[in-house]
Design brief:
37% helix; single chain; 9 strands; two-stranded antiparallel sheet; TIM Barrel; 274 residues; alpha/beta
Length: 274
């Protein structure tokens, strides 16, 4: 059997109200997929009821921490189970998140801009899909500049909001400016394999944006964004091979909020299905 090297760096729990399966089921799937570990990154609580229908409530955060700690204990010696968080960014939420992230030690903090959330749309969507895309990439850059995050998740998610209005060439200058700013922060970017199941069925980000990320030397973290156990590490082989084709030679994950590096060739060899 190959030596496990990789982690699932983006997965959820039922506390977010739109994921199925208990943490132990996700952990068992991670073992079956040949992973070394799994980092739970459920949707964080936010102030003032912001998007409360798709995330844990503030009062549930301690339960989340305890649930992952119990899973870690239950899988000790078989799988490295870690606690992380997916924290939404929008201007004005920084102080809330800074305090939340400081409450308990976290291993991986994903920064997300979720343009599909009704509360976010109510604040920022003016009826102009292209302007919304531009604002999305501005918010991605700002999120990295807060230094609140280790990795920026699914960084072209907005393309799925209005697929008919998505024109990569038109939005490319805004992506370039955002990536220049993100590269200056040292924050990693995620290659999210769940994109193949969305309105525009391709990885998030797609190949063109991945090439721009590679050209700027921005680190890449792979995550499946699993909302059910069978999605853990889904599409990892395809994602790794795609990265190789574009010119990446290594992938990253975070433990204790410190970046760990794995050569892609070794990562592929570590997976039983590669």
């Amino acid at each position: 059997m190959p030596t496990p090297l990789l982690y699932e760096s983006h997965c959820h729990t039922p506390l977010c109200k739109h994921a199925r399966g208990e943490p132990a089921e996700y952990a068992a799937e991670a073992i079956a997929r040949g992973l070394k570990g799994i980092i739970f990154t459920d949707h964080c609580p936010l102030p003032d009821g912001f998007s409360s229908g798709v995330r844990m409530a503030p009062g549930e955060y301690d339960h989340y921490v305890a649930m992952i700690a119990q899973t870690r204990a239950d899988f000790a010696g078989r799988l490295d189970v870690r606690l992380g968080l997916e924290s939404d960014y929008y201007p004005g939420v920084e102080s809330w998140l800074e305090q939340l992230h400081a409450r308990v030690p976290l291993h991986h903090v994903l920064g997300s801009v979720h343009p599909q959330i009704s509360d976010y749309r109510a604040r920022y969507f003016t009826g102009d899909a292209v302007a919304y895309q531009q604002l999305y990439f501005e918010h991605l850059a700002r999120s990295a500049e807060t230094k609140l995050y280790d990795t920026i998740a699914h960084p072209d998610l907005v393309k799925n909001e209005a697929p008919a209005d998505w024109n990569f060439a038109r939005v490319r200058p805004y992506i370039e400016r955002a990536l220049d700013r993100i590269a200056a922060t040292g924050v990693a970017m995620e290659l999210n394999t769940s994109g193949v199941n969305k309105a525009l069925p391709e990885l998030n980000p797609g190949r063109a944006m991945l090439a721009m990320i590679q050209a700027r030397g921005i680190p890449i973290v792979i995550g499946a964004d699993a909302h059910r156990p069978t999605r853990v590490a889904d599409g990892y082989v395809n994602a790794l091979r795609t990265l190789q084709e574009i010119g990446f030679t290594e992938v990253s994950h975070f433990l204790d909020r410190k970046r760990q590096i794995t050569p892609i060739a070794a990562a592929l060899a570590s997976l039983p299905i590669s």
